[in-house]
Amino acid sequence: MNLSLNKHSSEPLYIQIFEQLKELIQQGVLPEDYKLPTIRVLASSLDVNNVTVINAYKLLEDHKLIYKKVGSGSYVLPMEEKLNIGNAISDDREELEYDYNGEEGYIDFATASPDPRLFPMKDFKAAINDVIERDGGKAFMYLDSRGYLPLRGSIASYLSHKAIEVGPEDVYIISGAQQGIDIIAKALLTNGDYVFVESPTYTGAASVFKSRGARIVEIPLLNDGPDMKELEKLLQVIKPKFMYIMPNFQNPTGCSYSERKKKHLMLLSKKYNLLIVEDDYAGDLSYTEKAAVPLKAYDKMDHVIYIKSFSKIFMPGLRVAFLIIPENIKKTIASAKYMTDISTSGFMQRVLDLYLNRNILDDHIKYMKKEYGLRYFEAVRASKKYLRGAMFNQPNGGLNLWIKLPEKVNSSELYEACKKNKVLITMGTVFLKGQEGEQYIRLSFAGVDVPEITRGIAIMGNAIEEIKESAD
Predict the structure, then answer these.
(1) In the predicted model, is pLDDT for residue 343 greater than 70?
(2) I need a surface site. Which of 11, 118, 237, 329 has the fewest CB within 10 A?
(3) In total, how many domains does the chain have?
(4) Distance (Å, rounded) from C-alpha 454 to C-alpha 344?
């Protein structure tokens, strides 16, 4: 490196070093993974003190131009395309709720919202009346920003059955999981920070991270969880603010992490001091005898932020969810929560607390698992029968099937063909870029009853055959 400093300039010396190294890196003169001189060597060659070089290197690191290897030194960061840095796919259609009221006869496999006919209206009315009788006007007062203390205690007890040991002081009530994602982003992210996500992932989360200026790094998702070799390779060169994941019945793929990968991920979390955000949006919906164990249950180092919503098993419009926050960032997250939303609906919190204490929620979860299980198994059966040439893994839980289409069929064309026949699906391009996304569709069965699942998938199968014929 041929660096020159003007010691009579008003520009600080560390800025001069930073600007020259930045230009050499951006022009490719210093290639990726090039090891920079040690602080002592560069300081000596430029006749400056060590602090000047330390400040220059710190600025390069802040601008995501170099990275540090502990005990080894500073290296030039690889170019973005080699780090699998993605522009998160964002299509509002993925989260749109289609309200056809049954009048137009649409079969809607696009929305993952629960079937409102399954809502426990009788029990809910009774719980509302009981809360009003018991608490009167107090039920409608503002609460502590952290949430209704009895509910936080009930949730701590509920989590103990999932092998997560926390106290009421660790639980923060929020207005839905999406608000939790937004609060975490607001509290932790600054422009240029890296966030690791699964690929594909939930676009609603990725869009929030991007809105805070984050750079999304995609980790390929395999049938049993992330590609761990790729993850560690990236962790060696990038220090992300956190990694956002859905370890059980992931959206959109439906895949669940194996126990081996959950344990491996926690080892990497310890090794690289990696903060993990776990979104447990569908962990209660396992259709086998094997329960889905949250990653948080393996978290002995307090490295996992746990987000849990009841929207898929209860009523989405109630907007009650919660966060479990590691001790070292509690104040930061709590402050962001207060600025976002002083208090989540106290009345709904009291109602949910009643549900938990009376085991009504447990009974309702069993009922929902039975109902969704029937829909899941029919979706699997019908897909195997009618979607000839398509491939998918059976997740045994959750609300989606992630289907790879036959050759010569793309998701955009299939979407249009199905829509003409009043069947709605979600295109893979919502979750994956370009041609890769065109190979997939997401089929959500939560809001469709069994006979309509059969009929809708049969229509989809006919559309696939017509597309294949026209392509020959």
Answers:
(1) no
(2) 11
(3) 3
(4) 40
Which helix (H) or strand (E) is 278 found in, with range? strand 276-280
Among 86-100, 319-333, 392-406, the least confident range: 86-100
Pairing outcome for strands 304-309 and 321-324: antiparallel
- Nearest Cα to 330, choosing from 123, 134, 188? 188
* Structural domain range at position 331: 138-358
86 in a structural domain: no
Residue 133 lies in a domain: no
- Rounded distance between C-alpha atoms, residue 212 and residue 403, angstroms: 32
Three-class SS string for 300-328?
CCCCEEEEEECCCCCCHHHCCEEEECCHH
Residues 224, 188 share a domain: yes
Residue 153 gets which letter from DSSP? H
Residue 265 maps to which CATH number?
3.40.640.10
150/356 Cα distance (integer angstroms): 10
Query: What contacts 116, CB < 8 A, 6 or more positions away?
Result: none
pLDDT over 60 at 81, yes or no: no
Are both 256 and 286 inside the same structural domain? yes
Same domain flag for 228 and 343 = yes
pLDDT at residue 101 is higher than 50: no
Query: Is 169 found in the same domain as 232?
Result: yes
Q: State the Cα angle at 156 between 257 and 197, rounded to 5°.
A: 30
Residues 6+ apart with CB under 8 A from 39: 50, 53, 54, 57
From CA 219, how far away is CA 235, in angstroms rounded?
Answer: 11
* Mean pLDDT score, 461-466: 96
Residue pair 413/429 in contact by the 8 Å Cβ criterion: no
- Nearest residue to 454 via CA among 115, 107, 114: 107
Could you read off the pLDDT of 1-32 as tens digits, one per residue? 789 999 999 899 999 999 999 989 888 889 88
Which DSSP state fits 78?
Answer: P
Looking at the structure, tell me whether residues 436 and 324 fall in a common domain.
no
DSSP state of 255: -
Q: Are residues 458 and 338 in the same domain?
A: no
